[in-house]
Design goal:
21 helices; globular; 41% helix; 10-stranded mixed beta sheet; alpha/beta; single chain; 479 residues; 2 domains; D-Maltodextrin-Binding Protein, domain 2; Bact_solute-bd_prot1
Length: 479
């Protein structure tokens, strides 16, 4: 993927976190520490369980937290840390929070030595591979946190305050929850209402209308779409929910489960054909196959293309370019309807957790790590996060009384419109190389550059999926 400098500013924080698409190979690291959980790192004694301390935190024990310092920064976590110290003043100066962009290289020696932090925001370009972490039994099950009473309403469990799909994202085929995703990302087709208004248009709810609008834009010298051709695994942000809309969520479930011929479903072919038509008719910005994520976003934000497949982090990441156009009015659209026979309604969208937090199994103070997460999943902390970083939180609330910027407001509205029609594909969490290199670069990128037909892309992807299924060294997961 290249050096981390290629991912300046947000360092793919959300896409890496939410999708697991960026991961430094971690097998050797975690293999080395698989037997190190006892490595002289004695657990602190539990405290006394009470209504105010439901996780039985040792009130005088230290707490060691490491945060990924990406587009979200670390202030939101430091603010929650201050709340932790208020709750446990005896811990005082022993509560330590550090931040880094190099999660794996910073933490590798500590995992190897059996002395990991108590809480880790495992995100960014050096994100540790979750499949390996789980397979090597390196994580604590977060069920005690999920079953603890929420900070705001003791009658509600923490699990009952989370947005749809957050808990499932942290699971790997079993009942245990290994990861708590703190941010909540809405994926889809991002656009400027202002730029559409210049064409006397609104977001196209049908694919025929999408093609007609792209044709209209082309006559004005504007491309319909662009995408980061260097990192074509952005395409699924809108393509996967499009597949689900056409054929039903069951199609994505079969794909996630690596079922034979899952990619040969007619819904996949229909979706691929539709996207390929964008290329064939010249509706994709010239040069897109050579653009990285920042270059494609800049071209889009500068008005050279109407639409881009992306996630809700794009509002912060393109803030300067968007601000240059006071009438930009950022918004996100769900996949357009291909036909009246689509299995899911217009509004079906992909939304899921981002910014993944883990409590290492060998942590000295795992109760403290979970308690800090419990504090972060309060209305106060959630609102603080939303205001600071312009992102929704996995806590299902916190937007009341908060003025949301246009893109985030649109994403919130899209979630409300989707209702139960929210999809959350897991392929990119479970099989990093398959999603990123093979499906993304090896097939979708080739197809959208015109170097592979939809049929050829499907044939290649099905083979890649079959190879993954047949590789006994890769742990398999199902939903």
């Amino acid at each position: 993927m290249g050096s981390t400098s290629e991912f300046n500013r947000r360092d793919l924080v959300k896409r890496a976190a939410a999708l697991g698409i960026v991961a430094v190979p971690a097998m050797s690291v975690l293999s080395a520490c698989a037997g190190a959980s006892g490595g002289g790192n004695d657990k602190v004694a539990k405290g006394t369980k009470s209504a105010k301390n439901p996780l039985a935190v040792n009130e005088s024990a230290g707490l060691d937290v490491v945060i990924f310092d990406g587009g979200f920064g670390d202030k939101y976590a430091k603010d929650a840390q201050a709340e932790y110290v208020k709750a446990f003043p005896k811990a005082g100066g022993k509560v330590k929070l550090s931040s880094t962009q190099k999660i794996q290289s910073t933490l590798q020696p500590r995992f190897n030595g059996g002395n990991p932090p108590d809480l880790v925001d495992n995100s960014g370009a050096e994100q540790m591979d979750f499949g390996t972490l789980v397979a090597k039994n390196q994580l604590s099950d977060l069920t005690p946190l999920l079953d603890a009473p929420s900070v705001d309403d003791p009658a509600k469990k923490v699990r009952d305050t989370l947005r749809p799909g957050v808990i499932e994202m942290g699971q790997f085929g079993g009942k245990e929850t290994w990861i708590l995703y703190y941010a909540y990302t809405v994926y889809g087709v991002w656009y400027s209402r202002g730029n559409l208004h210049k064409l006397d248009a609104e977001y196209p709810e049908t694919w025929d209308d999408m093609l007609a609008l792209c044709a209209k834009a082309k006559k004005k010298g504007i491309a319909g779409w662009t995408y980061p051709g260097k990192y074509p695994y952005y395409l699924p942000f809108s393509l996967y929910p499009f597949i689900a809309k056409i054929g039903g969520a069951e199609v994505l479930r079969r794909i996630d489960n690596l079922e034979p011929n899952a990619w040969k479903d007619p819904a996949v072919k229909a979706a691929f054909d539709a996207y390929y038509e964008l290329y064939k008719k010249g509706y994709v910005l010239k040069g897109s196959p050579g653009l990285d994520h920042l270059q494609s976003q800049k071209a889009w934000a500068d008005g050279k293309a109407l639409f881009i497949p992306n996630g809700s982090w794009v509002e912060n990441e393109s803030a300067k370019q968007i601000a240059a156009n006071p009438h930009f009015d950022l918004a996100v659209g769900a996949p357009s309807s291909l036909s009246a026979s689509d299995k899911m309604p217009f509004g079906t969208i992909w939304a899921s957790g981002g910014e993944p937090y883990i409590v290492p199994k060998a942590a000295r103070n795992s109760e403290g790590g979970m308690e800090l997460l419990r504090i972060m999943l309060s209305k106060k902390s959630a609102q603080n996060f939303i205001k600071q970083v312009s992102s929704l939180c996995s806590f299902n609330g916190g937007t009341e009384g908060v003025t949301l910027p246009p893109g985030l407001s649109s994403a919130h509205t899209a979630l409300q419109k989707a209702g139960s029609n929210i999809v959350n594909p897991r392929l990119q969490d479970w099989y990093v190389a398959l999603q990123k290199e093979r499906i993304g670069v090896g097939a979708l990128g080739e197809m959208m550059a015109g170097r592979m037909t939809p049929d050829e892309a499907i044939q290649h992807i099905q083979k890649y999926a079959d190879d993954t299924r047949g590789d006994s060294s890769i742990k398999k997961y199902k939903r």
